[in-house]
Write a structure and sequence with these properties.
The chain is an alpha/beta fold. Helix content is 37%, strand content 26%. Bound molecules: adenosine-5'-triphosphate (ATP) and magnesium ion (MG).
């Protein structure tokens, strides 16, 4: 198992009320899994992904990634986990506008340090080729399309060869053609390279690319569907979305 979350909770408090953004979630993720997280706006998808990626500390429960129990006080081990195990694709791409595509891509490696120039070049060339962005490396984010930015954001998430890639609404800002291309890309990543992917989405088509879909409501898992032979996975997702 690459990731295990046991009864994790994340509550937000304001003067009048408490928002139970993640409210006792259990999830076991095997290596090579591809999971969609669905649910209405405010159901807790982004908070859950950020908790699982260690970006937001959980209030309670247990989180184990690649055999390591996450302890937010142990900064060194936390950074190691983030460096080796976690890649994150944000909906808004989060590319730095004054850096080129290539510079954005290698940012995580520069931050980790210890990577020689030749190795850096190799990694960039290989990944850029795989993602079809080799002609964009010297361009700035302002000069490329939304779909191309998302590929670049994906390249940055993958440059460290992480065990798990999280993607929060990765197709939310893309037109249908770019969206389909991007989904095929991450499908191949999962299928050919065995990268574990956890993706939050509102989109039924996006969810239908995955192996299983987890439905959230008020910070809780209310339903789970797996792709099974002989059943239409997409139809099951449509039904579950319609009835919740
Ligand atoms: N930093 C925060 N401070 C206070 N409340 C927050 C914070 N982040 C999220 N929330 C609240 O937690 C709940 C879950 O939010 P979250 O962003 O996880 O939902 P979501 O399912 O990703 O929604 P969307 O589909 O709109 O992206 C919401 O009620 C939200 O307002
Ligand atoms: Mg969200």
């Amino acid at each position: 198992m690459i990731l295990k979350a046991a009864n994790i909770k994340k509550y937000y408090y304001n003067s009048e009320s408490v928002i139970k953004a993640v409210d006792g979630i259990n999830i076991n993720v095997e290596k090579g899994d591809f999971i969609a997280v669905m649910g209405q706006s405010g159901s807790g998808k982004s908070t859950l992904l950020k908790c699982l990626a260690t970006f937001i500390p959980i209030d309670s429960g247990e989180l184990i990634i690649d055999g390591n129990q996450i302890n937010y006080k142990n900064r060194k081990s936390l950074l190691e986990t983030r460096r080796h195990d976690i890649g994150y694709i944000f909906q808004e791409y989060n590319l730095l506008e004054h850096l080129t595509v290539e510079e954005n891509m290698i940012l995580p490696l520069i931050i980790s340090g210890n990577v020689g120039k030749a190795e850096l070049r190799d990694k960039v060339e290989k990944l850029a080729g795989e993602l079809g962005i080799e002609d964009l490396l010297n361009k700035y984010p302002g000069e490329i399309s939304g779909g191309q930015k998302q590929r670049c954001a994906c390249a940055r998430a993958l440059i460290n060869s992480p065990q798990i890639v999280f993607a929060d609404e990765p197709t939310g800002a893309l037109d249908s053609k770019s969206s389909e291309k991007f989904l095929e890309l991450i499908y191949d990543l999962n299928n050919n390279l065995g990268t574990t992917i956890i993706m939050a989405t509102h989109n039924i088509i996006a969810a239908s690319y995955t192996k299983r879909t987890v439905f959230l409501k008020d910070g809780k898992i209310i339903e789970q569907i797996s792709r099974q032979n002989g059943h239409s996975y997409k139809d099951s997702i449509v039904q579950t979305v319609a009835f919740n």
